[in-house]
Design goal:
The chain is α/β, with parallel strands linked by helices and 761 residues long. Helices cover 45% and strands 15% of the residues. Strands 11, 12, 13, 14, 15, 16, 17 and 18 form an eight-stranded mixed sheet that branches. Helix 15 (291-301) links the parallel strand 9 (285-286) and strand 10. The longest helix is centred in the last third of the chain and has 26 residues, at 506-531. It binds a DNA duplex (15 and 10 nucleotides) through residues 58-60, 86-89, 112-113, 132, 193-194, 196-197, 257-258, 260-261, 360-363, 366, 383, 417, 420, 422-427, 547, 549, 551, 566-569, 587-588, 590-593, 602-603, 606, 627-631.
DNA sequence: AACAACGGGCTTTTT
DNA sequence: GCCCGTTGTT
């Protein structure tokens, strides 16, 4: 049997359409990733060379997931040759190979947001401008948006509209900052995230031979999350696929939530314009959620004016209504929801990983962290301060960066006096001054005091010189030493390891461990590369690390924790039970979105994304007062709750106190002061309340689970993974295990007495 | 040059 | 409430 038989009609049509431009509009939970992966697998089965396939995703995680699934269908020897990754990582590699053509060093640094903001702040001050007016974050936003629309510093300056906008927002000199920023990045041999796309555009524009090379190489181009691409990405894709026009874009306008980053839904319209004979496929059957959830989500998105018409529907059971919870404070919200999770888990025999708590802003995670820690519930926070953004990690990586690229100013400023080596502010001031005066990099100054005299004391000069010599000695090893050896040597001889080791506070110990973890990461990185026969220097590691975020952290197979994350990072994921918290006016929708319809509609799409993450149940909570900046402020329920068709809502616990309803505060009290580890007792003093735990018709659990009689080749259905096919059986009786291939999630090994498989044959 | 104490500003979302 | 940068002290 072919894997194509796993698909429904429209999915299959999209998968089997090989040549020419095509667009797939895929509703939430409609098997979008399955279509993308199967389409790639089908291309390969039809004889397309994997080397000629380019698949672009939005996150590293999505890329990895897709690659894994393709491996499971066509095998890794084929799949590894596909060019697959995020826009940023794929084009960073292409830029690495061609950097010299556009004047960048071949080992250019990638500036992260912190580096960028710090540089912008420096420049702002140098121009004598007030960084409270020219806030680095805002300035970055303007520059970023210019770059994503391919507006060069010169074009920015000449654009009357932009200049008058800047005047209106009292930042008339922004164009100067942009120009200087771009120059300084260039001199530092650094690109920011936006440059990775912007400079790719320049490369493809100015070097036809490069363009031709990649046009010929990538005969088939696929783009995931097309609704989230910006103009810069759009143009790259258009150019690369101009020769063969075998371009397949997949997206859902209802899930466009990144316009703040320049994402442009017009790209969907542009696609139609550019390829008038394109084929359109719509995936409208939802396989993920109950019909209540699907319909509730539809009723929300109906309030948006801007949308492509489509009808998402499902054959799934009705399921329970969406519960709306009202809590008094954010702390109570944390306690109640943690308790609910513990209760539902016990009552239904679920795993912690079946639950997710989704919020609008990272700051909201705190109350949930606290309550879950108190109750001993395992949880994991995704996003927030990434591992790679921690100070100790950034410090060590700054050494690596400076070793690879001496002109990396942000790295240099970070570590020239860390660990402390007596190079203080006055010295650094003098060096910076000289660098501005001569128009050369900081490194040029400190490595050439003869050529560029600086007015600092002899002893300071000497200390700086020692620092320079140290970095130079690392650099000589860069291309010869194995990545791990050099990484470790730098960690030691720079003094970082010792500095952290001497700090015996709990935080200090954690920092030391983090650095060890980074070193282990380097080791793992080079080991992985050695398998494929590549060398894997420290510079290669840097490229990898610059584009990694916490969201990409591999989730261990057996990791069984409640997931906490922002709605943005939940995109593409699904959980049986989802809690959307802090659904209040001014928080969700965010107060910053209230000025315009388009921004409000984006918030609504975000709410749509949140609801459609849920498979079985969805709970929405809001509080009446919340701590903000240490102050208790009052809050009211979000308008979005009222926009859901009320027939799908259960508002028993949402009635306001003024109308005589009860809050849930009584619910939590009996349990709070109990021994936290007693959570295994499901009815721990909590009065049974209807609606908190699904009962009756939704309760499919049988007390004595019957082990189905299976044979290899049988089609089966799993509660969570959907339909699948048995590929292997191990053991007998109560211990029997089965390998089942599920088109939606890949191959899983299931212990039959737990798995509750339904035999379809 | 290094460190402790203080005050202001901040929060939208991320590659 | 917390992080950052600025200020004052040694």
């Amino acid at each position: 049997m072919s894997f194509l038989d796993e698909l429904n009609g429209s999915q299959r049509a999209a998968v089997e359409n090989i040549d020419g431009p095509m667009m797939v509009i895929a509703g939430a939970g409609s098997g979008k990733t399955r279509v993308l992966t199967y389409r790639i697998a089908n291309l390969i089965n039809k004889g397309v060379d994997p080397f000629s396939i380019l698949a672009l995703t939005f996150t590293n995680k999505a890329a990895k997931e897709m690659k894994d699934r393709i491996v499971s269908i066509v095998g890794s020897s084929e799949a590894r040759n596909i060019t697959m990754g995020t826009f940023h990582s794929v084009f960073a590699k292409i830029l690495y190979a061609n950097a010299n053509k556009i004047g960048y060093p071949s080992n250019f640094t990638i500036y992260d947001t912190q580096d960028t903001k710090s540089l912008l702040k420096t420049i702002t001050k140098e121009f004598g401008l007030d960084d409270k007016v020219y806030k680095p974050g805002i300035v970055y936003g303007r520059i970023s948006s210019a770059k994503n629309n391919l507006i060069s510093p010169e074009a920015y300056e000449d654009n009357a509209n932009i200049i008058s906008e800047d005047r209106l927002s009292r930042m008339p000199d922004l164009y100067k900052i942009y120009k200087e920023y771009q120059l300084r990045c260039f001199r530092a041999g650094a690109m920011d995230f936006d440059d990775l796309l912007y400079q790719t555009n320049i490369l493809l524009r100015d070097f036809p031979d490069v363009l031709h090379y990649y046009q010929h190489k990538f005969k088939y181009v696929l783009v995931d999350e097309y609704q989230d691409t910006n103009y810069s990405q759009y143009l790259i894709v258009k150019k690369l696929s101009a020769l063969y026009e075998n371009i397949c874009v997949v997206g859902d306008d209802a899930q466009s939530i990144y316009s703040f980053r320049g994402a442009n839904m017009e790209n969907i319209l542009n696609f139609r314009k550019n390829y008038p004979d394109y084929k359109l496929f719509k995936l409208e059957q939802n396989y993920r959620s109950t019909s209540t959830i699907v319909k509730a989500a539809n009723s929300i998105i109906l309030h948006n004016k801007d949308q492509i018409k489509k009808e998402v529907w499902t054959h799934n059971e009705e399921g329970q209504k969406i519960k709306v919870l009202r809590c008094l404070t954010d702390n109570e919200e944390g306690r109640i929801i943690s308790k609910m999770i513990a209760d539902i888990k016990e009552k239904e025999g679920l795993n912690f990983k079946d639950f997710a708590i989704l919020y609008r802003t990272n700051a909201q995670s705190r109350s949930f962290e606290e309550s879950m820690r108190k109750m001993n519930l395992p949880y994991k926070i995704y996003g927030g301060l990434s591992f790679y953004q921690r100070k100790e990690i950034k410090d060590l990586i700054a050494y690596y960066r400076l070793t690879a690229n001496h002109n990396d100013e942000e790295a240099l400023k970070r570590i020239i006096n860390y660990p402390k080596r007596g190079i203080g502010n006055t010295t650094i001031e003098a060096i910076t001054h000289a660098s501005r005066q001569y128009g050369v990099s900081l490194w040029d100054i400190i490595s050439n005091f003869d050529k560029y005299p600086v007015n600092i004391s002899g002893s300071a000069k000497n200390r700086v010189h020692q620092f320079v010599t140290k970095i130079q000695s690392y650099t000589t090893q860069l291309d010869v030493a194995p990545a791990y050896d050099l990484a470790k040597e730098i960690a030691q001889s720079s003094g970082i390891l010792k500095d952290l080791y001497d700090d015996k506070t709990p935080e200090g110990i954690t920092r030391y461990e983090n650095v060890q973890e980074l070193l282990a990461g380097v080791k793992g990185f080079s080991a992985q590369l050695e398998e494929t026969g590549e060398k894997g220097t420290l510079s290669d590691f840097l490229l990898d690390v610059a584009l990694l975020t916490d969201a990409d952290e591999v989730k261990e197979e057996d990791e069984n924790t409640v997931s906490l994350m922002t709605i943005h990072s939940s995109k593409g994921l699904e959980y049986p039970h989802v809690f959307i918290v802090g659904v209040e006016e001014n928080l969700f929708p965010s107060q910053f979105s209230l000025n315009s319809r388009t921004e409000l509609e984006e918030e609504r799409r975000l709410f749509y994304v949140a609801i459609t993450r849920a498979e079985k149940s969805c709970t929405i909570s809001y509080v009446t007062s919340r701590y903000k900046w240490g102050q208790l402020i009052s809050a009211e329920p979000s308008r979005f709750i009222g926009e859901i068709d009320p027939q799908y809502l259960d508002t028993e616990y949402a009635v306001t106190s003024t109308t005589g309803g009860r809050s849930l505060s009584g619910y939590r009290r009996p349990s709070v002061d109990r021994n936290p580890s007693s959570m295994s007792v499901s009815n721990s003093g909590v009065p049974p309340r209807r609606n908190l735990i699904p009962l009756g018709k939704n309760d499919k659990t049988k007390s004595a689970v019957e082990i189905p009689h299976l044979k290899v080749g049988y089609n089966v259905k799993h509660e969570r993974f959907g339909k699948g096919k048995v590929v292997n059986l191990v053991g007998t009786g109560g211990d029997q295990k089965a390998d089942v291939f599920f088109p939606r999630v890949g191959k899983k090994t299931l212990i039959l007495k737990f798995a509750k498989l339904e035999v379809l044959d």
